[in-house]
Request: fold
Amino acid sequence: MRKRLYEVIFEADTPAGKAFDVALLIAIVTSVLALMLESVAEINAHYGPTLRAIEWAFTVLFTLEYVLRLACVQRPARYALSFFGIIDLLAVLPTYASLLVPGSHALATVRIFRVVRVFRVLKLARFIGESHALMRALRASFHKITVFLVVVISLVVVTGSLMYYIEGPDNRGFTDIPTSVYWAIVTVTTVGFGDITPQSPLGRGIASLLMIAGYGIIAVPTGIFAAEFARLPAPSVSTQVCPSCLAEGHDPQAVFCYACGSKL
Amino acid sequence: MRKRLYEVIFEADTPAGKAFDVALLIAIVTSVLALMLESVAEINAHYGPTLRAIEWAFTVLFTLEYVLRLACVQRPARYALSFFGIIDLLAVLPTYASLLVPGSHALATVRIFRVVRVFRVLKLARFIGESHALMRALRASFHKITVFLVVVISLVVVTGSLMYYIEGPDNRGFTDIPTSVYWAIVTVTTVGFGDITPQSPLGRGIASLLMIAGYGIIAVPTGIFAAEFARLPAPSVSTQVCPSCLAEGHDPQAVFCYACGSKL
Amino acid sequence: MRKRLYEVIFEADTPAGKAFDVALLIAIVTSVLALMLESVAEINAHYGPTLRAIEWAFTVLFTLEYVLRLACVQRPARYALSFFGIIDLLAVLPTYASLLVPGSHALATVRIFRVVRVFRVLKLARFIGESHALMRALRASFHKITVFLVVVISLVVVTGSLMYYIEGPDNRGFTDIPTSVYWAIVTVTTVGFGDITPQSPLGRGIASLLMIAGYGIIAVPTGIFAAEFARLPAPSVSTQVCPSCLAEGHDPQAVFCYACGSKL
Amino acid sequence: MRKRLYEVIFEADTPAGKAFDVALLIAIVTSVLALMLESVAEINAHYGPTLRAIEWAFTVLFTLEYVLRLACVQRPARYALSFFGIIDLLAVLPTYASLLVPGSHALATVRIFRVVRVFRVLKLARFIGESHALMRALRASFHKITVFLVVVISLVVVTGSLMYYIEGPDNRGFTDIPTSVYWAIVTVTTVGFGDITPQSPLGRGIASLLMIAGYGIIAVPTGIFAAEFARLPAPSVSTQVCPSCLAEGHDPQAVFCYACGSKL
Reply:
């Protein structure tokens, strides 16, 4: 019985497992849409009670599902502390928290991240393979990206301070260093909101250098990632999830889990 | 007679076919320019009737062409439901619709997409080859891009909700979750309109993280596409269109359609 | 005598040729800076006559140089119609034109493009090699970029018309289709000025799709260029310019011009 | 004694050296945070004296460290003129300068760049290897990037002048050529603050061309860097710093410095 439940909830290889995952996908998207619409004043005035009822219905459903997941998995603690275990919990907590802190149920939209799991349903293996490929490429360039981020953060801190020193007294925007650093981040990432802008010739000159630097800097992570990605072999994995340690990405022919050795 | 018409309208290998396609290209661009100019108040005040006459003339012409295309192709239903068949229909509908819904003829600019077809005229094979190469590279990375899009959409929904929760009460911009999600999209894509901006220190901190994430995220589709594109062999196709199934991209030496086997 | 002049003005292999090119580089940058400063009201009030004198001095100098170039090159017509010949002429015309049309001397900053030529001086061969490599990579991806541009232009025309139809009546920004197309270009290129922004939920939804599309579209030219560039062999050329046809990019061992066969 | 001090301060191979570098990392980040918070008016009103005390404590500490570094290195002049020697000096100067020029201590945030050095502590070799790889890729594409920058600068100068000529008289934003060039940089880098925007149809047309050009231009440095980076072999270096010439990036098996031949 417990094994059967496990197969339906955690796997997507059986018809029942697929149906469960599709229903879950629809429930997640519907509940997030309800949460978003509820925040719109006009819609809330007309359909507020209905939307709140929908929200509570889905929250109770997701809570039940979370309890069932804990009940049918071999190592509940391991699941509870895994990425998806935490997301599953965070998906229901804000609605209960809204009983104490009004308005906090808006944060329940975090349940959208649960959608990532249901990739397993739609041409599963390939999608999981793709996300594994993305993950491996990101992990391979982790060190380079850390070095890169430290350089970028140093750059925005120094440029922000410099702009605060130059523009500060006369310009309403650059009120303190944290605000100036925020402006430098907005500029170097080429977002450019325009709520804070340099006015003095010197400030504009430094801003120009920062923008051209940002233009060049954008090339660095792209180049790193493209090179790393080009080295990856084509992925080929199954959609099996280990019932004991929840590891994914097993070889299609695998009989035992590569991580803990238990039978799949 | 019908076969001759087909060669003139659908193909660009004969002098008549080329001339037809060049004339069509000019007609499309002229009619789109007329539509754009008509919407400008000053120009409309002076040349309104002329521009409306031009628009109707081209619409009647394009309607006639659409009927001829239906008449001379072997399988009219197949053409009518193909990408170009739908565009050809949408290119004339808005002008007729403007008799019922005033102003809707502005949407007739969709006929600009018909220009894509007339690539066949200008050094045809190479252009078609290029667009096939682009298409194949996009299709090859379709799964990776879907995974990527789901992650980005989840990210903007959660960040938007968080910003609504943090900035909401005091900031005129973040009025509801859909608006906040719109802001998150504007920010993560580095567009940065600046009509909605965070004001609180915490909101600015989260915005900074989102911008730096967006900076890194922009590297992912570029890296995917560059890697996929580098793997493509040089394309080599003819401009022949199958008269029976409308398939394009035939080998220059091909005598029969690769899709349905009928004679080219 | 004429050959000696040619070597000084057109080549950078002799000490005199190098000195001439360095002096020219300094003159160009100085004259452009003078033009820029002259336009600033405060600086013009104090140093206007001096700056105008500098401008006229450089213009007379550049005119003299242009005449000498025409005099010493073997085929003056060919030089006059080459890219650099036209730039050299445009570099002096606006100052003379300002006698008839006041203010037009601002356009004399076009002479900054002359700087590109003096790359020949600074570690010449390598720089020319690099710019040739860039040019070849751009030319190789010309067809792909044309297809790409036509798709982008079609996209902004259709999106602009759609936004004009949706936002038009209520929003001061989307006054006519050309303005809406301008907004679509500002958005799809992720520039995002924010002077025109959608206000209706539907308009914001379409803008979001356009921004995410723009995000993905930016990957296409980068991927094309990166792939094309990776295929290029390391360049190795000399700084010789053919005295007869002005062709550049000769092999270091070349004795005859690859384009016209005359002796180098 | 001096050699022992050198190992603690300059190296990170011994436990004492690691502990010193970790302490330094914490001190740098703390002092920069104190400087940033001090600039916020509200926080300064409450904790101003405390933050100023922290700042002076760290400045005295860093000064002491700078003197010790000078004392224990074999060639003090070489260290003082190296990149990190200059940063170490600039890290303390602004606080002392603030005694003469009030407010200049904001510039002491430049000490954040010292963080780059302490990469040596955290899984050292790999991080140094990564930054060396980044540096080599940047150096390899230096010539191409210079050519690219000259073209971009020429483009913004000419476009800025053109916009000043077209928009100048009627538009408050384009007051002089330097401001217009600043606008062109903001536009071509896709930052798009929106504080200065074209209003005339012709100005918007030119801005559109500039934006589409910027869109394509962004592909150039990315393509260069990606291609250059893909050619790099995997780096493998130690964290040893030569005590005599301060060169980094030695082979793990190296016994003598590759740059000056002295014993490591």
In short: The domain at 131-231 of chain D is CATH 1.10.287.70 (Helix Hairpins). The longest helix of chain D spans residues 41-72. Chain D has a mean pLDDT of 80.
